[in-house]
Amino acid sequence: MRKLWLLLILFPLYLFGADKVEVYASHLDNNAGIVKASGDVVVLYKDYYISATDAIYDRENGNLELFGNVRATQGSNYQLLGDYARLNISDKERVFKPFYMLEQKSQLWMSADEGNIKDKYYDVTTGMISGCNPNKPLWKIKFSSSNYDGESKWMNLWNARLYIYDIPIFYMPYFGYSLDTTRRSGLLIPAFGISSDEGFYYEQPIYIALTNWWDLELKPQVRTLRGSGSYETFRFADSKTSGGSFTTGYFKENSKYVTLNSLAHDTHYGFNFQYTNDDFLNRWFGFDLDGQSGIYADISHMNDVDYINLSTADTINNATSNQVLSQVNMFYNTDRNYFGTYFKYYQNLALESNAKTVQKLPTLQYHNYLSTFLDDHLMYDIDFTSTNLYRELGTNALQSTLNVPVSVQTSIFDEYINLSYESVLYGEHITFGGTVDPTAVQTSNGYPDGVLLRQYNIFDVKTNMTKAYEDFTHTMTFGLEYVKPGSEAAYGFYKTEKTDCALYPTADVCKFYTVSDVVENVGLDFSQYLFDTNGSQFLYHKLSQQISYASGKGELGDVENELDYDISKTINYYNDTFYNYTQHQISKTINSLSYTDSGVKVKLSYLYKDSFIEPTSSTPRFTRYLTSSLTYKYNDHYSYFGNYNYDVQAALKKSSEIGFLYSKRCWDFGLRYVENVRPILSSNTASKIEDRYIFFTVTLKPIGGADMNYRIPKSIKGE
């Protein structure tokens, strides 16, 4: 049969403007205002492309009805299917029975009895959603009613029931989620857990984003046998070149838990402020400076280390330490000069008070970059620093240093050998204040002021050679550095305390004696590199040796041998070893072996260090530490992982983890077992806790998921 394709404008343009409907069909029949179309019916309406077997249009009420295998595509994001559809052109309303919608990007689909669409708003009754195969979805959420905002991409479900296959798992009277990545307020993925000593753990993050330049995350939590609290993080971007965050938290312990575990505090609180600005001088003060300015702030304070431990259920990801550093760095940099100001504050969580801890508030620095004179034969740069060493109780100091290296360089033998000589002019000055120490040689300010003046010389010889072969390129570098003390004059503090600080470096006064003697020495180093034909390095080797002449005769320092070798495309070996000639032993060695191939990643590392000192309870002679990790991706669905970290010297396992992740297009399921040793403050004494967890992770793609954990009874170890 010969097909006739007709174009029909259903409403005059002067009545409906841009709401034009185009209908294409094999057959068209018009009778008393009723237009019937059949055979390959295609309807174009706004951004809809609709196909059906038959269609009927009623001119009087403006209804366009479509029958049989109705398929509708809206833009490039949504596909709608049904056996029946009705479009009311005048009311801009569309009805689909039954209703099936597929969001192309996320592959999330919805199936329901009926869907009513008006503009960009969807009302749906009695249906289900899933991101899995529609024929037999692994998970699905059934609901009694739903609506969807096509503009904000937000879906609401009422009386939602989660099913795994056909087994009901969870009921939610309301559930809402987003179909895109736009920042918006709402509930984030919760975390669940259970522990025999802390009880049931529940954390429900709440995300608030009312503007595009800030957001707020609230993380209230409850541990039924331990206590409750909340952590809040405020993030902001105050300009294109700056932004930061402020985090604070508070946790209140149950009195029974405090008594049972002998905790030092029944409340844990603190804060952290981070901020960066890459152009603060111009933006804050209205300057028009050509150089670069910047500020970096990382300020923390807490009453004990449990403030960190309680911030999450997964303590293995927390970097816990008994010392917390807060710092603020500011600088201004040009091609010629650098100005810096640095504030550092140390908080020792193992102490009741930090009044005796020396702080650096602030350090001022000026640096003049390399300059030349005498026809570029001589080069020099200038570096000046001044540090205020402050503490509430005890001696304070103002320490300033000036360092001016002056050098000359040349080359010989057609630039095969490079020669340089550097004369270093160094000066240091210190003044004291604060509490007078009655045991020291005193002035009115405590210790006597001090001045140190020093000049020393550095001679350097280097050569660099490269040769290309058929399969690789070889580069070698030889270097010799000779340091020769010159003249030195010490007055006051630097003269009176030099001997004592050499014998008793841990004494309080020696916190301020930070200079080291310049010793006549020779440094030898050799390094070589091998590159393949693609220019990728597959071998690096360095050998270095220091020879000291402090006693008038040559004494060998530790020799260092460093190797980084890609044995093959899948195996890498790294070693850095120091050998002590006096002790005839290795003083330090780091070994690391890694393998990567066919979804397998294995890494083993071992650290050994011998300080050659008499061991004490706080400073052991030996350090032996083993780390290992393994990941294996069996296929696109299964991956396995594990790690093990062990303090060999203390015979103490620091942490371990083993688990797997099963991943499919529509869902992930993960299981892992974790053991971790972390510090706590118990009755003002530093102790350790061994945590043991079982973590479950379930993610229903693309709507999200939850983390759940079971905490096995812990054990406490004293320091």
Could you give the topology of this structure?
Layout (H helix, E strand, L loop, with lengths): L7 E2 L3 H4 L4 E4 L2 E5 L2 E12 L2 E11 L4 E12 L3 E11 L4 E5 L1 E5 L4 E11 L2 E10 L8 E11 L4 E11 L2 E12 L7 E2 L3 E5 L3 E5 L2 E3 L5 E10 L3 E13 L2 E12 L1 H7 L5 E11 L2 H6 L6 E11 L3 H4 L13 E11 L3 E12 L10 E15 L4 E13 L4 E18 L4 E18 L15 E19 L3 E21 H4 L1 H6 L17 E12 L4 E12 L6 E12 L4 E10 L4 E13 L2 E11 L11 E12 L4 E10 L4 E12 L3 E16 L2 E16 L3 E15 L1
Parallel strand pairs: 16-43
Antiparallel strand pairs: 1-2, 2-4, 3-4, 4-5, 5-6, 6-7, 7-8, 7-9, 8-10, 9-10, 10-11, 11-12, 12-13, 13-14, 15-18, 16-17, 17-19, 18-19, 19-20, 20-21, 21-22, 22-23, 23-24, 24-25, 25-26, 26-27, 27-28, 28-29, 29-30, 30-31, 31-32, 32-33, 33-34, 34-35, 35-36, 36-37, 37-38, 38-39, 39-40, 40-41, ...
What do these coordinates show?
By secondary structure, the protein is mainly beta. Helix content is about 5%, strand content about 65%. It contains 6 helices and 43 strands.
Mean pLDDT: 85
How many beta-strand elements? 43
Approximately what portion of the residues adopt beta-strand conformation?
A: over 45%
Secondary structure class reads: mainly beta
Ranges where pLDDT stays below 50 over 5 or more residues in a row are 1-18
**How many H/I helices?**
6
Rg from C-alpha positions? 36 Å
Give the biggest beta sheet. Answer: 27 strands, mixed, barrel
Give helix % range.
under 10%
The N- to C-terminal Cα distance equals 93 Å
Outline, from the CA principal axes? elongated
